[in-house]
Amino acid sequence: MNLDKVDLNLLVILKHLLEEKHVSNTALTLHMSQPSVSRALNKLRVLFNDELLVRTSQGYELTSKATQLQQELDGLLQRLERFVNGGQFIPHESEQTVRFFGLVPQINWLLPPILRRIRRLAPNLIVDLDTVPKRHFDALNEGNVHFVLSTIEPSNSEQNLYRMFIRSRDFRLLMSEDHELAKRPITVDDLRHAHFGQISIQGGKTLSIEPRFRELGLLAKNEKLSTPVMLTNFNAAANVAQETDLIFHLPTPFAEEVAAGKRLVTREVPDAIKSSYQNIYLYWHKRYHLDPMCVWVRDLFREHYHHEQENVARRHDEQAK
After folding, report:
1. pLDDT tens by residue, 257-282
2. Which of 54, 133, 236, 319 is surrounded by the fewest CB atoms within 10 Å?
């Protein structure tokens, strides 16, 4: 390929064509005429010696080469933007994409106030959120996301990660308001004989509070708590709890959020089996440590949550007086 013949504007059109899989929609998105986008697609097909989009009975689909190009194109355009702008990030002008991974409890609790500020300060910045359960740091190490919100500690082999403390959280028990334990004090023995819903994110088979029962000598070596239903993500927990006798052990902010407006209650975990507070961190990779957009996003987290931490400390001091 002769780079002298490459029109960089074609790459922008290609990005949207691969996302939309539709010439007319791409034209609307880019405020172009449909014939102009069609001509650009023909030029791109010649440039890459590939059809890129092929018509099927369900519409257009990407060729294998187009799929490969799509995986690389966003990063390429971002690097070109930084190159042209001399490493500057101008929030109200940027059309870059910032990508996050986190499980639903972290994303629901911690990201909305940051999104509110992004929408106000950088309205054209695209925020891509991935909440599909997976190994937390793989996408970060592979360069597929910019940030991860997680309570998990990276392995010693993952040396290129930075992190920022965001918040701490504890846990609550979520159950139907008709559950036999919903309206009386809950004991450890009650839970020993209860039935739980298990949320298994990475294939784990042990309920999060089960180790505490073992430490207290309440479970024999091969004995387990009852977990007749297992979920691979958090989304169904509220509806399952509402309609069954199952109890879920969930992060407090998430449990309280999903209980609102449903026939559900949240209850304190008995002191003897309480889990310690979990710290949630914002992680990023060394490759993006000095990236202007990522520095700006980190500053939003730092400003907001530093202020939140100061307010929490102030309330604690006032309550202690």
Report:
1. 999 999 999 999 999 998 888 999 99
2. 319
